[in-house]
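Would you mind writing out a protein's amino acid sequence and the numbers that encode its backbone to help me picture the idea?
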Amino acid sequence: MKRADIKVGFSCNNHCLFCVQGKKRDKFGDKELGEIKKEMDQAIKDCQGIVLTGGEPTIRPDILEIVGYAKKLGFQVIQIQSNGRMFAYQDFCEKAIKSGANEFSPALHGHISDLHDYLTTAKGSFDQTVKGIQNLKKLGQKVVTNTVITKSNYRHLPEIAKLLVSLGVDQYQFAFVHPLGSAYENFGSIVPRMSLIEPFIKRGLDIGIKKGKIVMTEAIPYCFMKNYEGFIAERIIPETKIFDYRKIVDDFTKARQNEGKAKGKNCQNCFYNKICEGPWREYPEKLGWAEFVHVKNNMKHAYSVLKIVRKSFNFLISEYKLSEHREKIQKILEILFYNFDDKWLSKNQKFDLSVSSQKDGLRFSYNNYCEKECFEKKLSDVFNLFENIFSTDMLEKLLSLMRFDGDKHQTTIGIEWLSGNKQPRIKIYFEELFRVYSNKKIFEKLNEICDLIGISFNHLGVKRKEKIGAISVDFISSSKVNVKVYFLHKKITEKDLRNKGEYSGLERSDASWKQFFKFLDQENKAFFYVTKRFSENSDLISLKLYKIYETIQIEDRFKESWQEIGKFLRAKKEKNMLKRVSNLKMISRNNKFELFPVIIAADNSLKGINVDLYFSFRPDNRVRQ
């Protein structure tokens, strides 16, 4: 989701020692209401969310009118970024919510009043901000807090984290002080050494992580975040357009990278150089680069895997005309492939990509094999890239529901970004269920999932004797979710489906469907899924057949599998699919990898027959020639 950051003015009832705005309150004051409305009129053209900030927006007498205008324009997310003091008045909170505000970002810089009030130079501000957070949570609001890291409070970040968790905040962030404005004037007493703050940041993050909170840091380079790289906010900060005083910054990420941050000589040799932004440039100008020690690349194979995935993605992005989404897709890759180990590829089909006969777009999946602990964080980070497009609350409830077993099953995230779509579709799969659970337990969980997403289990027509291999929940938007059920078969024929009445009114005369059945009859090391996809109204949307190659046995079979797949695609005259597969094979071989088939599937929907081919990579020295 792209958001607009509108600075409504620079007046403030705090005088923070680290204030990045400095003396702007004296120089510029506040914007006129008409100017703010014009900026919102401009922002709604390409932004879905809005952040009202300053200065302190809540002390404006017309702030509720501003919020109401944002709601009238149709912004999906309306955040008030604040010092939190006005939220101490419950009636103000209620009016702000009624006007349209649906996200609140108060700032807390200490765990006790002496520390917070010293930094804000406003006596009583700590008590008001804490009371404000309590009011907002009592009213059921989303609260995301910010703590600016300074010389005075960095040792107390764990205590601040404990307080924030006890207050029930949804998310907290530790942001390294930006040495501009008052922070630059007070540099010696405000800006700490990054090498000193590292252990306190990590302890502070751990407290939130253990409690299931969303936690992150800002403006702290990767070299100070070893083993916590997944919590660096810059990885997932959404595209932001800033409306400053008589100045518009169209892309804050690029402005931050090109003008705000800096890189030193050591950075050029760092493993994270391509994705790390470096520190605020004022920091090394004052304190030098000695602390910044480049991270060595101890993950050569992982990097080579990410390299081949990137190249394949770039090909598909160009092929399907998704270039405008390239940056967001690259962020998804960085999140999912963080700490990837190439050894996993010899034991498991860790991820796959696919091409399709009818669906033009990028489609891929990534599972939790060998990374059970951090995988859910990756899912949350991907969802957070699309703020309020997909429900992170629904995701958490779904994952919580399926934690009953200690993660014995496989969990997979699937991304489908079709040509012409502004946002992708995200799917969460619970797979390999038949290997670890009884049918009774699987049916219990399917029933609970249906209850959670509001689909009638009884309407699905799922028979108790049918063996369920997997279940997926399809996130289309924050308000629309589908479910898909995968039924396991060792062998399947057209007669089996007709006898069971699986078609349910779907088209069954298509020649491709019959061709696919002939393909299924061929002997190979594989098993089959028959799947039904149901809409939020519990209506059957499509019927799909999957032939799944046994990945652990594929090393001596992949050439034969490609031959039978090629024969099927040629018979179907799928020239585009054949061409794309050929190009991806070439990209793989040029990078010392082999492309191997994982699944071939035919989807019989009301729109006709669609054929999908799923494949993955393996280093060529792991494949028998």
Remarks:
- The chain is about 35% helix and 20% strand.
- The radius of gyration is 27 Å.
- Residues 300-319 form the longest helix (20 residues).
- The CA atoms of residues 512 and 572 lie 7 Å apart.
